[in-house]
């Protein structure tokens, strides 16, 4: 079996740093790659060696697969870990890596290719008796045929790009009247975003939950599931808060979903770490959505409740080792919650907010983990995803984890940019979340920008008014010391401060 001695991490920021830390624990030296915008990033400083790929735009740096492979050859690198995003689900890149005699820390190119197409994935898992959302089994382009199929399924329906992700190339159609226009838009958007205009139709689950199962498979045919993650709090189809386990999944449902996820992995001969995503309706029926053939952003909550280092397992699997544990060895310990701290303004439709991290102080204490890739004084670049950090808490139960998270949010100090911290605090304290009775419509159903405005009691309002008067008097005396006292506004609120 190959023994990895030097690992190149083909990524940036928090995930690059997180991978390198595990590699160092395993005695593996690391190579960082970076763009000119990330020259001073912590992952560059942490690595044993670092190479600049080019200018800030991804297509001139982090997406240069051939250049990354060349760096590996020059530095005698044994393996590449792609992290998530960028080249992590690029089957062509994975094949080039393996063809170059370098270990790809991830699944086979064939697995990536099958699961990279939503239609191919559905076809691959069909023989494993895995629940699928009613819809077309292949790409559809004929408008009249598509309309007929939509009528059979029943509105509302969803038009989705086969090669899609992140909500691109996706259109909800409420009635036949708007079908043609929405289909044309979906095809156009899919072609623009992915270079592939293929779309398919499926029933739209009106109030779904987004629940995913973490799987691990080795190259000897062993596959296990490491339970579920609840990922329903989203904005623009992107997750903001995740937790493990889910508040609504029973042991029986967990077993059924886990075994279905293992079936999905076996359908494409999967090895490595992967995530099988399901949508769950209001009756807790679950349907296969897609498989992400990489490490997920939210993997830390699984690590917290299982005690397993998923990156360590990825590396061991890539080396050809069998899984060191079986399904019956895995247990859930406590509860974990993760929030994504984005440089976004929740009061302005979650638009990215770039700038300098003037103040940056991480929360600390028992059960708190911060995965980040920034330091105080650094600029948030405009070229990449605006996530600053992932804040994760662990507790004996769900309420303990939530309480600890709220304390950690209050202790986090970030100035210079707007962040999603206030929104996450609002969501975690909302009755829908604390009760566990929420779905992917949480933001549109419960959140408005004014919900983040401070709420003061009558007594606090009176104190603030009194303080304002005191401040006014001091300023007036400073500017014009001869002003008679009786010319100033009078109020009895000032007395409340005494």
From TrEMBL:
SMART domains: Biotin_carb_C. This is Propionyl-CoA carboxylase alpha chain. Pfam families: Biotin_carb_C, Biotin_carb_N, CPSase_L_D2. The lineage of its organism: Bacteria, Pseudomonadati, Bacteroidota, Cytophagia, Cytophagales. GO terms for biological process: malonyl-CoA biosynthetic process. SUPFAM superfamilies: Glutathione synthetase ATP-binding domain-like, PreATP-grasp domain, Rudiment single hybrid motif. PROSITE patterns: ATP_GRASP (PS50975), BC (PS50979), CPSASE_1 (PS00866), CPSASE_2 (PS00867). The keyword Signal does not apply. Residues 3-448 form the Biotin carboxylation domain. Keywords: ATP-binding, Biotin, Ligase, Magnesium, Metal-binding, Nucleotide-binding. Transmembrane segments: none annotated. Residues 122-319 form the ATP-grasp domain. InterPro entries: Acetyl_CoA_COase_biotin_COase, ATP-grasp, BC-like_N, Biotin_carboxylase_complex, Biotin_carboxylation_dom, Biotin_COase_C, CPAse_ATP-bd, PreATP-grasp_dom_sf.
